[in-house]
Amino acid sequence: MELVRVNADWLPWSLLLLFLTWDTSAFYVPGVAPINFHQNDPVEIKAVKLTSSRTQLPYEYYSLPFCQPSTITYKAENLGEVLRGDRIVNTPFQVLMNSEKKCEVLCGKSNKPMTLSVKESRLVAERISEDYYVHLIADNLPVATRLELYSNRDGDDKKKEKDVQFEHGYRLGFTDVNKIYLHNHLSFILYYHREDLEEDQEHTYRVVRFEVIPQSIRLEDLKADEKSSCTLPEGTNSSPQEIDPTKENQLYFTYSVHWEESDIKWASRWDTYLTMSDVQIHWFSIINSVVVVFFLSGILSMIIIRTLRKDIANYNKEDDIEDTMEESGWKLVHGDVFRPPQYPMILSSLLGSGIQLFCMILIVIFVAMLGMLSPSSRGALMTTACFLFMFMGVFGGFSAGRLYRTLKGHRWKKGAFCTATLYPGVVFGICFILNCFIWGKHSSGAVPFPTMVALLCMWFGISLPLVYLGYYFGFRKQPYDNPVRTNQIPRQIPEQRWYMNRFVGILMAGILPFGAMFIELFFIFSAIWENQFYYLFGFLFLVFIILVVSCSQISIVMVYFQLCAEDYRWWWRNFLVSGGSAFYVLVYAIFYFVNKLDIVEFIPSLLYFGYTALMVLSFWLLTGTIGFYAAYMFVRKIYAAVKID
User: Fold this and answer.
1) What 3-state class would DSSP assign to 180?
2) Which of 124, 168, 172 lies closest to 146, judged by CA?
3) E strand segments, 70-143
4) CA dihedral 250, 252, 253, 257 (to 10 degrees)
5) Distance (Å, whole) CA 161 – CA 153
6) Phi, psi at residue 69, to the nearest 5°?
7) Signal peptide location in the record (predicted)?
């Protein structure tokens, strides 16, 4: 994969992102700022966190009794890193550029190994049994464990193909026959690229890959001398280091360093980490979804355009007025179709939040597609999304204010406050409750109190004033021009068929948009819940466009059927039905939880379904807003095309 380089055309975007992400390095693109090392320069190994897909609770590195340096220094994190649970800290590993180390004791002396207390042993054993992974970085590259898988397609042992994949981080330990073993020796394999220089210049090196082979070696098999060097046992004669949670355990933490030269250039060094799964399946599925959605969309468009032309032609015949009046159809509700719905303030507020979400997601995906929010810039995606949501409040407020005035609303100040607080308040409330549970587990995933105060200040100091500003101008602007007048007396609505039921409508309307993006949903869920990298933002942008098109078209079809059934109460119903794909996202999330994740405890399950509820709510707001505005434009268009006496 050729990673994108910054050119002059992207300078405005770069400056915008640099401003939005405050003091972060969010517009860092691979290929922009390499670090050059000389021979024997120190290469710092830092720890990020401990993670497990079974518990979904990250912990900081020194929550376990690892060897500590003389001074522990935490890196200043951006907002996204804090929300992700990253706590980047220095470690005592001494690694020098292109300098080998056979085996070195990390802490403890030759005659005095490190002793884990009963409490520490119990904690380490618990983390190993929960499948925790340790995440380290060197020169901003995450450590990976090489997995060599052999595929024997022809049934011939000589023709076995070796498929190399990489696992993020390394396993803390493993269990075997009810015994728990700790990986106490790390074999670091670092790859460097030698830069071409002119004569008489010292060679410079760049780190392009960081691998580790974790091993478990018991105390008796490790021979250490007074200089902190050690000798590893030869072959497979050694036994692993067992951790007995019922007593104190003595052990050595050791490591070795091996350097290899690589042809991989610095700009392409992330390719190893980003190609961890079979991309061909991904490509095929995306293209398949694109073709199916466009095919169905084309059929829907042809049917509805032909039907509409026929309807409008019939309604506009002047020579047979009596027959026209006796017909049933959408023209008969022209005096009620623009009648304001119940709770117009709440409807306009939700739609305003939907516009806010839409603008934020569109810009984030587009900028990420340009390569400015690469995985190498930790937390940049989440930081940018948070700030953009705040700043997009002006657009959300403007659209909500104008719609509220169109729906004959008068209390614009209350409407603006509702827009600024309804959806963000629900999100903040759910996150705060979940955060209390994470706090109770002493996880690094818990948002610290100062960060929570900072988020509240952003909400009430940036988002709220911008929503009020947008709402003020939107409310003052001329309301949407409806082509027909509303009757004073509401028309009686005939009894509806079973398939016009709201829930049936949600099931019918949600299939097509969900079908367009459910493959992408799998990769997004893997990135969120299984600590994978997500980087195919070009495909995601394409899927987002298809989602917008399919939501719009299915919404138009549903509102057309509803008006043909002489039911003019389409405002709320269309908003709910257009977000029907969110119901399928919820069903898929439950399926993913049952089949893909190994979560059994209460708090991890609560976290999963709590954050899933937020995703489903946000997705419903997004798709509901897209469908609502498409249907509103459609309704105004068709009633403007017929002659009303």
Assistant:
1) strand
2) 168
3) 89-90, 101-107, 114-116, 133-138, 141-142
4) -170
5) 8
6) -75, 170
7) 1-26
Query: What count of other Cβ atoms lies within 10 Å of the Cβ of residue 208?
Result: 25
Residue of 328, 374, 367, 394 whose CA lies nearest to 567: 328
**Bigger pLDDT: 311 or 219?**
219
Q: At what angle do helices 449-458 and 380-391 cross, to 10 degrees?
A: 30
Residue in 125, 139, 206, 132 with CA at minimum distance from that of residue 169: 132
Neighbours of 298 (CB within 10 A): 11
Please say if the pLDDT value at position 601 is more than 80. Answer: yes
What would the two tokens of residue 191 be? 């790859």
Contacts of 430 (CB under 8 A, 6+ apart): 610, 613, 614
Residues 6+ apart with CB under 8 A from 191: 207, 208, 209, 210, 211, 259, 260, 261, 262, 264
Q: Is 392 exposed, middle or buried (0-12, 13-18, 19+ CB in 10 A)?
A: buried
Counting Cα atoms < 13 Å in the Cβ hemisphere of 414 gives: 7
Which pLDDT band holds residue 11 (cuts at 50, 70, 90)?
very low
Q: Taking the model in full, what pTM does it have?
A: 0.83
Specify whether the CB–CB gap between 172 and 133 falls below 8 A: yes
The CA distance from 620 to 481, in Å, is 27
Structure tokens given for 494: 């005939």
Which of 270, 295, 407 lies closest to 344, judged by CA? 407
Structure tokens given for 249: 């355990």
Per-residue confidence (pLDDT) for residue 152, from 0 to 100? 53
Digit-coded pLDDT (tens) for 614-625? 999 999 999 999
Backbone torsions φ then ψ of 329, nearest 5 degrees: 150, -175
Distance CA 392, CA 412 (A): 19
Instruction: Name the token pair of 2.
Output: 């050729």
- Report residue 589 as tokens: 């999330």
Helix, strand or coil, per DSSP, at residue 113? coil
> Which residues does residue 178 pair with via DSSP β-bridges, in sequence order?
none
Q: 459: which DSSP letter?
A: I
SS3 39: coil
Is the separation of the CB atoms in 345 and 354 below 8 Å?
no
What does the alpha-carbon distance between residue 524 and residue 534 come to, in Å, rounded to a whole number? Answer: 7
| First-last CA distance in the chain | 63
Cα–Cα distance for residue pair 25/18, rounded to 1 Å: 7
Specify the pLDDT at position 30: 46
Say what the pLDDT of residue 468 is: 93
Q: What does the alpha-carbon distance between residue 192 and residue 38 come to, in Å, rounded to a whole number?
A: 11
The string of pLDDT tens digits covering residues 164-175 is 778 888 999 999
Nearest CA among 530, 502, 506 for reference residue 587: 506
Q: Please report which residue ranges of 532-601 form alpha helices under DSSP H.
A: 537-564, 571-578, 581-595
Q: What is the pLDDT of residue 13?
A: 39
What pLDDT was estimated at residue 416?
Answer: 92
The one-letter amino acid at 5? R
Give rounded-to-5 percent helix, strand, coil for the chain: 50, 15, 35
Question: In the prediction, which pLDDT does 337 show?
Answer: 80
Q: Buried (b) or exposed (e) across 218-252, using 16+ Cβ within 10 A? A: bbebbebeeebebebeeeeebebbbbebeeebebb
Cα–Cα nearest to 480, from 403, 571, 400, 398: 403
pLDDT given for residue 223 in this prediction: 80
Q: Are 165 and 279 in contact (CB under 8 A)?
A: no
Q: Which residues is 170 bridged to in the sheet?
A: 134
